[in-house]
């Protein structure tokens, strides 16, 4: 019975994918259309971005986590409005913009449907022949979303319990900003003083000497009106100190192990190989994941973001070419069978280890 059920689900998924691909081919511009290359490029880039992200599966009780993940995916392909504004057709008039909207809708629909477990998929009943991502999104919200009141309460609890752990300030900062943005989106009217105090309390004993000097400034008003610290300025100062501390720790470690191969420093657990800076991990690199940063920072660094994106794309291409060369060389050597199970690229092996690289 279970095998038949799984087979039925696989067939259902295959039918959906085939229909979506059929829609895509029927709606694609002709070979003579000058916009075809732009549309193909968008689709290729969007698929690359989505395929590289972990998918959270909606099981019926993790709606908030799943919703956040899908919205992040939509943001990556510039299609968030389709869901948040419940768009079922493009408002554009230019043919290129309309076609791009169709591609975004198609990718979102597929992404959402593939992120549902079997029970959730069955709860939807017959498939919607229009394949509108917004319609599917709305139906799932009606079945599994919690009330805004409960969502706010859960988010408030997460903010209350947020603490800096393992001296990882950058992760703490990213989580704090994410929770604050969520509370604001839920129209939670907290004062800046509340965020100010929660942020400082969440730091615990980290950088306690520096924090104590800042608190002395904060307490200096005594019985007069309270003057909060500039929270954004404090965040920047702490981020700088976190980076300096990590660099010093890295230098000390390198001095103690300078007899090791040079790859030791390049694989330092606090070194980001995307932006080539120390003090944070790739997962929380703002250049690689600009959605973690605020609007002002993204605007100020937009050229650097694009430059690093292009640089890392080219680096990956060069790396693949080099790997192919080494693979061909190994194939021509005696004892090929022995080397077949060994990666020719040590960096490829290292990046799958439990480290920050």
Automatic annotation (TrEMBL):
Domain of life: Eukaryota
Start-end of Polar residues biased regions: 21-32
Compositional bias of kind Low complexity: 245-266
UniProt region (Disordered), positions on chain: 16-39, 245-270, 309-338
Compositionally skewed regions (Basic and acidic residues) per UniProt: 309-328
Record protein name field: Uncharacterized protein
Native organism: Emergomyces africanus
Organism taxonomic ancestry: Eukaryota, Fungi, Dikarya, Ascomycota, Pezizomycotina
């Amino acid at each position: 019975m279970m095998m038949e059920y799984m087979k039925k689900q696989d067939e259902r998924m295959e039918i959906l994918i085939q229909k979506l691909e059929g829609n895509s081919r029927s709606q694609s511009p002709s070979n003579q259309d000058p916009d075809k290359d732009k549309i193909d490029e968008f689709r290729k880039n969007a698929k690359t971005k989505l395929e590289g992200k972990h998918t959270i599966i909606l099981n019926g009780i993790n709606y908030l986590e799943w919703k956040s993940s899908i919205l992040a995916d939509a943001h990556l392909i510039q299609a968030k409005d389709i869901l948040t504004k419940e768009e079922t057709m493009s408002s554009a008039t230019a043919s290129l913009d309309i076609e791009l909207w169709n591609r975004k809708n198609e990718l979102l629909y597929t992404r959402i449907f593939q992120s549902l477990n079997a029970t959730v998929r069955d709860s939807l009943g017959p498939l919607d022949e229009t394949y509108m991502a917004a319609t599917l999104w709305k139906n799932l919200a009606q079945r599994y979303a919690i009330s805004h009141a409960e969502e706010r309460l859960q988010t408030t609890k997460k903010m209350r319990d947020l603490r800096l752990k393992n001296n990882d300030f950058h992760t703490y900062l990213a989580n704090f900003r994410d929770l604050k943005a969520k509370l604001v989106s839920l129209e939670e009217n907290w004062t800046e003083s509340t965020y100010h105090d929660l942020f400082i309390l969440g730091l615990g004993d980290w950088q306690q000497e520096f924090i104590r000097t800042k608190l002395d400034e904060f307490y200096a008003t005594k019985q007069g009106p309270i003057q909060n610290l500039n929270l954004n300025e404090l965040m920047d100062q702490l981020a700088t100190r976190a980076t300096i501390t990590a660099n010093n720790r890295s230098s000390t470690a390198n001095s103690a192990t300078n007899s090791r191969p040079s790859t030791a420093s390049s694989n330092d657990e606090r070194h980001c190989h995307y932006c080539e800076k120390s003090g944070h991990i790739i997962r929380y690199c703002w250049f690689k994941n600009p959605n973690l940063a605020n609007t002002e920072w993204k605007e100020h660094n937009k050229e650097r973001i694009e430059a690093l994106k292009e640089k890392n794309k080219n680096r990956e291409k060069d790396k693949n070419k080099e790997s192919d060369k080494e693979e061909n060389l190994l194939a021509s050597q005696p004892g090929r069978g022995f080397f077949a199970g060994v990666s020719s690229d040590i960096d490829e092996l290292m990046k799958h280890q439990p480290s920050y690289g």
